[in-house]
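Weekly modeling sync, notes
Attendees: AB, CL, MP (scribe)

Item 1: holo prediction request
CL wants a bound-state model with pyridoxal-5'-phosphate before deciding which constructs to order. AB pointed out that an apo prediction alone won't tell us much about the pocket. Agreed to run with the ligand included and paste results into these notes for async review.

Input as submitted:
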Amino acid sequence: MSLAQPEPVEVAAPIAFAVPFIDDTDVEAVGRVLRTGWLSTGSECEQLEQELAELVGAPHVVAVSSCTAALEIALDSLHLEPGSRVGVPTWTFAASASAVVHAGGTPVLLDVDPDTLNVAPSAVAAALDEGLDGLVVVHFAGTPVAREVFDLAEAAGVAVVEDAAHALGSEDDRGPISGRGTVGAAYSFYATKNLTSGEGGALATHDPEVAAFARTHRLHGMSKDAWRRYRVGADPTYDVTEPGLKANLPDVLAALARTQLAKFPAMQERRRQVVCRYHERLAAIDGVRLVPGTPDPRSADHLAVVVLPEGVDRQRVIEAFGAAQIGTSVHFRPLHRFTWFAANAPVGPAGTPVADALADRVISLPLHPALRDADVDRVVEVLAESLA
Ligand SMILES: Cc1ncc(COP(=O)(O)O)c(C=O)c1O
């Protein structure tokens, strides 16, 4: 299928950092669910789980309220001893590490590879030598984490949880990112993600025990969800087998995720075109590079992160984009630079030299399927002017 062209706008009009691609099919699907009288988790959610499972080739997908919840469920399934050391790349969103804390562990913050900003195999190896009880990896911006990282963890007998918030649609040599050989892969359907339901997420896993745990843990540890208790003629009794979370995905949001999923291949195709155009256009600006430096055909192209030349005042660049009505963001401020993590999460034995060298040099450019070629050119023009 092809995407309908967005309404034409003047190139000088605001260029958003990320906007969801919403059309009538999304609006109709949400309206249809609203009229059924069943708004919480039910048949829409079950169908979304099946469709996602088909997309990523996983035997089990459990829809939840956010990627954060999916990470917490995956980590809770490990039943970590209090204070267990879990490696987490320092270059990530707070949720990757706070989920470890909520599961009773201590995040050990690891340095990243300068090209991909994914966790560096050397930092993982050093931390494993010192002793880790688990590892969270992040497929940053959609670029798949290096195979070596999974091999190192496997050789050390350390369980891996995949933060795939940016990686729905990414692939590595195991196939689509879906928790193959790991505890599971946690996707995000947050408003700025490549598939959105406003808020939402899912855990994909190849482990039936993790899947069974996730199904009860997402809803208070109850043996039966509301969909199975409230249907006419259903047995309303249930047991509570463990103190779970409240992290189910309502059908209203699941319906939106489903219509987004129908457009997902077309939206991803447009993302790829935009990323390739950024690569072409940015090649003309000295000292600026995208992350990673060459487009990775296996990436879900979730973010267009550029590394600015050394010594450039990033704030000045951000302000130039603001003045040109262009939205930008920063992914990420390394976790070891935040107050709580600095005080409570040790840095791994390899330190964080790469993250420290790049922390003040990255900026994320607009990237979404409704972006036009002329918008990309305008973004690059403003970047070049701000650096001149
Ligand atoms: C790398 C990463 N992990 C986890 C999350 C959390 O996702 P959610 O908002 O769905 O909980 C995000 C959200 O931006 C993220 O970027």
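Recorded for review: The two ends are 41 Å apart (CA to CA).
Action items: CL to compare against the apo run; MP to circulate these notes.
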